[in-house]
Amino acid sequence: MPRIRKRYLTMLLGSTLGLVLAFMVLRTTDWATIVTTAQQASMPYMLLAILSLVMVWICRALRFLLLVEPRVGTPFWPYLCSVTISEFVDIAVPLRLGVPVRAFTLKRLRQVPFMQGAAATVVERMMDFFAVLILLIICVLFVLPFGQDVHLPAQLLGTDEPFVLASSRIYFLTMTLILSVLALTAAMFLFWALRNFYGPRLNSLLTLMLPRLGHRMTDAVTSFAHHLNAFSSWPQAAALLVVNILVWLFSLASIGGMFMAFGLPTPLYTPVLTLACIMLSAMLLPTAPGFVGQYHIAIVISLSILSPDIPIELASTGAIFIHMTHFGISVALGLVCLATSHISLRELSDAETLGKEDIAQSDAD
């Protein structure tokens, strides 16, 4: 019960924050500019952005498949459905239910044990975490003007003076992120390398301390370590690396295509900072349904930093169109996969409970 209350409190905070951020963006929006921009949008670049976004989801599904069933002949469609349906749920109801929903969907479509699907999803999220940190490091070292403070426009913040973020703080944060990546990488390597040593001891310790939950927690840790084995096989690790790079390249192409479609005069490297801001906002802040507010402010801030000559009204207009396109396609893919998978929304809402029942049944067997 306390966990459920915490989740709904998080959604309430995210919705409130999203409304505040959306208001900051919308109050600087010129609605006449929105109509004009839509009419003048370049269809070739728009199609490029849409195609790139579809390829993002295809590559994400392929990455998930390589983590769970890296065998020739494994059906691709169940993995695409599990990825897009979980994203649809996260967009509609931001309660961080993506892990249980993806694991439940994969179990329904491929009979993969719930714990195995959940552990693979966690490994995949960690890969995304590494990618975001790398994007941020690239932004600070190569994209942001070296040695210059970052000024956020006063019109966006509703203040008399722009907000100044000192360059010294930015580079201190960068070094902290670099050390965090190195520490986390070392921890993961030790966790995998010592799996045979701590496995039996961990099982005995957890069973002694938590008789009812110890076995399940050991299974979760063991399953997580099992999926890290993907990085010990050079062909599988190389395939995962290539697919992961493609995920982020197509993500950058999608954002860059939208910038060009709506005629936003930005440097070619602007999507790097934009994507980093979007992902960092998604990971660190409680989100509103549809990621409203947080998504818009991330785009506007990145444009304000790298292209300060762009009017704030035009930047806000671009953020609205990019959000509508990206989330519209993601929701459409999720609904199509949901319909073809014959999984009801009620089942998805009970995915976590059904997953626990599946684990309990496995323990009984």
Structural commentary:
The relative contact order is 0.17. This protein has helices spanning 2-26, 31-40, 43-68, 77-92, 98-110, 114-143, 154-157, 167-193, 195-209, 214-228, 234-261, 270-284, 294-306, 312-341, 345-349, 351-364; strands spanning 150-152, 163-165. It has 16 helices and 2 strands. It is mainly alpha-helical. The longest helix has 30 residues, at 114-143. The protein starts with a helix and ends with a helix. α5 packs across α16, α9 runs antiparallel to α10 and α13 crosses α14. Strands 1-2 form a two-stranded antiparallel sheet.
Give the tags:
single chain; 365 residues; mainly alpha; 16 helices; 78% helix; globular
Helicity level, as a percent range?
Answer: over 70%
Q: Say how many strands there are.
A: 2
Question: Which class do the helix and strand fractions yield?
Answer: mainly alpha
SS summary, helix count: 16
Helix and strand element order: HHHHHHEHEHHHHHHHHH
Q: What Rg, in angstroms, do the CA atoms define?
A: 22 Å
Rounded to the nearest angstrom, the distance between the terminal CA atoms is 28 Å
Topology (SSEs and partners):
Blueprint: H1 2-26, H2 31-40, H3 43-68, H4 77-92, H5 98-110, H6 114-143, E1 150-152, H7 154-157, E2 163-165, H8 167-193, H9 195-209, H10 214-228, H11 234-261, H12 270-284, H13 294-306, H14 312-341, H15 345-349, H16 351-364
Antiparallel strand pairs: 1-2
Helix pairs in contact: 1-13, 2-14, 3-4, 3-6, 3-11, 3-14, 4-5, 4-14, 5-6, 5-16, 6-8, 6-10, 6-12, 9-10, 11-12, 12-13, 13-14
